[in-house]
Amino acid sequence: MGHGIGETMTVDERTPPVGACLPAADIGIAMGSGTDVAKNAGRMILSDDNFATIVYAVEQGRAIYDNLTKYIRFVLLLPVTFVLTFLGATVFNIAAGELFTPPQVLWIHFVVNASFGFALGFDRESPGLMQRRPCPRGESVLTRPVLVMVGLGGLAITVILLGLIKLGQAHFDSMETGQSIAFTAFALCLIVAAFQCRSETESVLTTSTFDSKQMNWVALASSHSRCC
Q1: DSSP string, 41-74
Q2: What integer pLDDT is reported at residue 2 of this predicted model?
Q3: Number of neighbouring beta carbons within 10 Å of residue 157
Q4: Residue 12: beta bridge partners?
Q5: What is the CB-side half-sphere exposure of residue 102 using CA atoms within 13 A?
C-alpha cells in the first residue's frame, strides 16, 4: 500500500505470492534458508536469517551518508569563501585583488582542507542517528540547510578576512602584515568550521564537539604547522 503513495516498502519472502511481491517491493528480502524462488526474486539475501542484521546494515549506511554530508559541507565552504574573498578584494580594491600567495592557497588546500575532509569522511557516528526520520527518496545531498550553512559561513569568513587585511594595513602600515594576519585567521576559521560541519543542528560550543580523536589531532597538526 505504501508503494503507491511514494513511500519505501520492504517485504520478505513470508509475503505471498513471493514471485510477485519481492520484485515489486523497493527492497525484497529473501532468507538464506529460504527457497530458490525467493532468492532469485529478492534484492537482498539475509544469509543469517536474523533481522537484527538489517538494522545494523541500515545503521552503517546512515553513518556513511552522514559522514558524506559532513564532508560535503566542509569541502564546499572553501571554494565559496575563496570566490567571495577574491571578489570582495577586487570590488573594494584590497591588496590589489590578490589576498594570498600561491603557496598560501596550496597550504590551505592540502594541509587544512584535505586533512579535515579526510577526518570528516571517517568521523565517528553521530548520536541519535537511528532516531532521525529517513531522507525522502530522490533528495539531493545539497539540501537547503547545507546551502544556507555554506553560504553564510563563507560570507562570514570573507568579512573577517577582508576586515583583518584592512586592519593590518591601517594599524601596522603594511599590506603584507595584514595578509599574514588574514592567512592565519583563515586557517583558524576553517578549523572551527570543520568542527561545526559535524552537525547541522548543534552548536560548535559544546563538549561533544571535541569527542573525535582524529579531528582533534588534525586540528592540532594544522595549527602547529601554521605556527611553524
Answers
A1: H-SEEETT--THHHHHHHHHHHHHHHHHHHHHHH
A2: 46
A3: 23
A4: 29
A5: 0
Provide the residue type at 71 as one letter.
Y
What cell was used for 117?
A: 575532509
Dist. CA 159–CA 19, nearest whole Å:
62
Cis ω on the peptide bond leading into residue 17 (within 30° of 0)? Answer: yes
| pLDDT tens digits for range 2-31 | 454 555 656 555 556 555 566 666 677 777
Nearest in space to 185 (alpha carbons), one of 157, 213, 209, 205: 157
Cα separation of 43 and 160, whole Å?
52
- Residue 132, all three cell numbers: 532521525
Per the DSSP assignment, residues forming a β-bridge with 46 are 31
Q: Could you give the maximum distance between any two Cα atoms of the chain, in Å?
A: 82
CB 125 within 8 A of CB 66: yes
* pLDDT value for 80: 93
* One-letter amino acid for residue 166 of the chain: K
Q: How confident is the prediction for the chain on average, in pLDDT?
A: 80
Q: Do the Cβ atoms of 31 and 49 come closer than 8 Å?
A: yes
Q: Looking up cell 505504501, which residue turns up? A: 2
Q: Are 198 and 70 in contact (CB under 8 A)?
A: yes
**71-105 pLDDT, tens per residue?**
988 999 999 999 999 898 888 888 777 788 888 88
